[in-house]
Design goal:
The chain is an all-alpha fold. It contains eleven helices and no strands. Helices cover 74% and strands 0% of the residues.
């Protein structure tokens, strides 16, 4: 009988300890002005582990879904979208150990869905240093979906970034298509585009080494801009 009582007490202790630890963690986080969820996101987003970074993205999505779009969320997304490019963790021998393109894609997608000025600023900064075409495509798509009072800056940055790939030995269809579509979206919201560099880029794509449907898309947007200019004139 005595042995049974001891066994029951041990089981109860094991069950209570995790709850107590969780409550202690929540209390500590509250004292520091952060929730346990944000502490987890911060730790996972600063890790050099791909799995941890993806875990951070999953938790960020959940937090945003609950209405948390505070500065901590933006800071974590900025860390993730710049990881391996502007924010690099370098091992011995010069190998970058936190270069995960799929993580940066996920961060770009989340920022695009948030659609705020803060998100736009982070995306534009990330585009300046991104070298992976598929990641840059996601960044450009996200930026193009965000309406801003400063679309002129958005257009200028998009054109600069896209031209970097256009002038490379192997121009990217992904980057070109995302850029012409983003320029079209911005033009539709602003009633046209007056940036000479944007028009030049569209002509370069229309006559460049790209897939036929991308060149045709560029001509379609050029014709649309001509129509808008004539109507405005």
């Amino acid at each position: 009988m005595f042995v049974k009582i001891i066994a029951i007490l041990v089981i109860l202790a094991v069950a209570v300890v995790p709850v107590a630890m969780g409550q202690a963690a929540e209390a500590e986080a509250a004292d520091e002005g952060q929730t346990v969820e944000m502490l987890i996101i911060n730790a996972a987003s600063t890790s050099a582990s791909r799995d941890q970074n993806l875990f951070a993205l999953e938790n960020i999505e959940n937090e945003v879904g609950r209405g948390n779009t505070g500065s901590g969320i933006y800071a974590a997304l900025e860390r993730l979208i710049l990881a391996g490019t502007q924010n690099r963790i370098v091992a011995r021998g010069g190998h970058v150990v936190n270069n995960f393109p799929d993580v940066r894609q996920g961060a770009a997608r989340q920022l695009g869905e948030m659609g705020t000025e803060e998100a736009r600023a982070i995306l534009l900064r990330a585009g300046l240093s991104e070298r992976e075409p598929l990641v840059l495509q996601e960044i450009i798509v996200a930026v193009g979906s965000i309406d801003s009072e400063d679309n002129a800056q958005t257009v200028a940055t998009l054109v600069w970034v896209a031209n970097r790939f256009h002038r490379s030995p192997a121009p990217s269809n992904h980057v070109a298509l995302a850029t012409v579509n983003a320029l079209d979206s911005i033009s539709g919201r602003d009633g046209g585009i007056t940036n000479p560099g944007a028009l030049e880029y569209l002509f370069n794509v229309a006559n460049g080494p790209y897939a036929l449907f991308i060149r045709e898309r560029a001509w379609e947007i050029i014709d649309s801009l001509r129509g808008s200019a004539e109507e405005g004139g």
